[in-house]
Amino acid sequence: SAVTASNAATVDFDAAFSSTYSQYVIVCSDLHPRTDNVELRCRTSTDGGSSYDSGGSDYRWGVVGRDGGNAGDESDASSASEIAINGTSAECQFGNAADESGWFRMWIFNPSGTTYDKNFAWLVGGSPISTGNGPLAYQGVGQRNATADVDSIQFFMSSGNLDGVFRLYGIANS
Q: What is the mean pLDDT of the chain?
């Protein structure tokens, strides 16, 4: 499925994951925040998107990245209310100037399983805020700190709305 967001507060893939596939990939292009100096974040749901898990210890994540000017970020959280996809470094936040945009690709592993915590991995790239440092690149891993199935995911900026094209793909089990 696909979502084209225009000035949206969130992008939700509700009731999108099932046991049909053991992995899912979300690909986003033309990611553009409406607010300057922000991070991309996500949360998950176990009830078809009726509510999204946002407790202070629901997630853990780690991110490593750099921009073209060698400004970098190595950040993590062992107890968080969301996953900060491009970390938390001020130098590598997304900007909202006309020429600033980004992309990401996220893998979600066995979201319908109930034995282990849910695992995520991602790559992020694009134009950082107006630092003149060139493109940024990040990689990260994260977990939902629960063994419950995950059937939905929500993306949002740390502040303000966003634009972008989001596509969800299931990867066959064979």
A: 91
Q: Are residues 30 and 101 in contact, defined by beta-carbon separation less than 8 angstroms?
A: yes
pLDDT for the residue numbered 47: 97
How far does the chain reach from its first CA to its final CA, in angstroms?
Answer: 21
CB within 8 A of 50, min separation 6: which ones?
A: none
Q: Within 10 Å of residue 147's Cβ, how many Cβ atoms?
A: 11
User: Would you say 45 and 150 are in contact if contact means Cβ atoms under 8 Å apart?
Assistant: yes
AA letter at 50: S
Instruction: Tell me which of 52-56, 66-70, 156-160 is least confident.
Output: 66-70
Whether 57 has a pLDDT exceeding 90, the answer reads: yes
Q: Rg of the chain's alpha carbons, rounded to an integer?
A: 15
Q: How far is CA 148 from CA 39, 54, 78, 82, 171, in A?
A: 27, 15, 19, 16, 21
Number of residues assigned to the chain: 174
Query: Which H or E run includes 61?
Result: strand 59-67
